[in-house]
Amino acid sequence: MDSSSECTRVVVCDTDTGAVLKQGYAPHPATGTDVDPQAWLLSLGEAADGGLLEGVQAIGVSAQQNGLLVLDAGGVLVRPAMLGNDKRAQTAAADLVDALGGRPAWAEAVGTVPHAAQAVAKLRWLARSEPDAARRVAEVLQPHDWLVWQLLGRPARRTTDRGAASGTGYWSAATGQYRSDLAELALGHPLRLPEVIAPAEPAGHTPEGLLISAGTGETMAAAFGLGVSLGDAVVSLGASGSVFAVHHTALADPTGTITSYADATGMHLPVVHTLNAVRALRGTAELLGTDLEGLSELALKSTPGSHGLVLLPYLEGERTPHLPHAAGTLSGLRRESMKPEHLARASFEGMLCGLADALDVLRARGVEVRRVFLLGPTAGLPAVQAIAPSVLGAAIVVPEPADYAAIGAARQAAWALGVSHGTLAPHTPPTWPAAASQLFEPGDELAVGQSVRQQFGTVREQTHPDAFTWNPAG
């Protein structure tokens, strides 16, 4: 099962082949940033209705990341759950950065720098904004931790996995240990943290005897469901963007550009975020009076380099490179370049060059990238598929739409079940077929893509000199 911020999806998979046999879906009620988590259980029940789970031997749980549930000493919720998209803790995050001595200190301690979404920042916000509630907090869970605990009948043992733990701001992927002092620094008093169990270790069994695996966060589950491995990177195209790759070690980054997550298999998932991806396409489409499909069609009427037009897509400021107060820039305007098709292509090239910059941050730290999985609805646009291989400098894999987070959770459940039966090793997950996908190679266009990137980089340096040599200390 995957419990996202919008819905619950359930897939029932064959243990040996990974084939999806049955699936269910149920929406979550529309809410703000606070939610009664019982709604997630009701949604799960609805998604699994009609005998969907008959014959199931094990369940894996994936869930939205960065949510926070705070419990009192009796295991009762102190307040509604805070969701990952909650931005109230922005000031609290900045306070915590200063409290430990700056961004490099946090990056060294836990591989990530506090931001509003993280549990550690939410705890500081709670201590400052709801002190009466904060004083009652005895332990904390994330959404997948809480769901696993509920499915197991609320046992005394509380568990999580290294993937979800690595996003809290008080667990280090590099050391595999909690920094409970940082959680205490945020909340103001000691608290109980869930036990981090191994990827193939079961969290327990339900009263009916079903095995429940460790579970994990959505990003880690989706990577596992897709079957990404060493040499693979994933570029996620939302309004903002993210680039992550499977790597054998954690990557500490004193600037905080790289967030050092753990994955669901025992490896690592260094992540680089951008603030601008598809929002640049949507903005350009609106300007030209068309939609994304129309923008793609227009872009393909232009040529690589967009007739000299370069769009720096920093519409909301930018995180990579660190330009929090920047605006977008359109450069290279000449009479002959002032045509809709050239602006359309410049928007695609600008978005993809921005993501290539993020990918290069990982490459510069020794992360091998042979293939790039491209995720998100816009990955299917012909302009994206035509431009991405040469600009990103790698073979592009566009998986067919599927519930990859739920499939990853099912694969984890099959792994834990196999280990418990003695048919799988704790360090060898089940081999399921790769996701059905399309493959796009850069081929002879690689040099063309590098020229587009060079043009983009020249404009970026002229507009924002030394953007990628930002010093976190000053």
From TrEMBL:
Carbohydrate kinase FGGY N-terminal domain segment(s): 54-215
Alphabetized InterPro entries for the sequence: ATPase_NBD, Carb_kinase_FGGY, Carb_kinase_FGGY_CS, FGGY_C, FGGY_Carb_Kinase, FGGY_N
GO terms (BP aspect): D-xylose metabolic process
Keyword Cell wall biogenesis/degradation: no
UniProt keyword annotations, A-Z: Carbohydrate metabolism, Kinase, Transferase, Xylose metabolism
GO molecular function: D-xylulokinase activity
Enzyme type, top EC level: transferase
Pfam families, per the entry: FGGY_C, FGGY_N
Enzyme Commission designation: 2.7.1.17
Residue ranges constituting the Carbohydrate kinase FGGY C-terminal domain according to the UniProt record: 233-417
Protein family (similarity comment): Belongs to the FGGY kinase family.
Database matches in PANTHER family: SUGAR KINASE (PTHR43095), XYLULOSE KINASE (PTHR43095:SF5)
Protein name per the record: Xylulokinase
Lineage of source species: Bacteria, Bacillati, Actinomycetota, Actinomycetes, Kitasatosporales
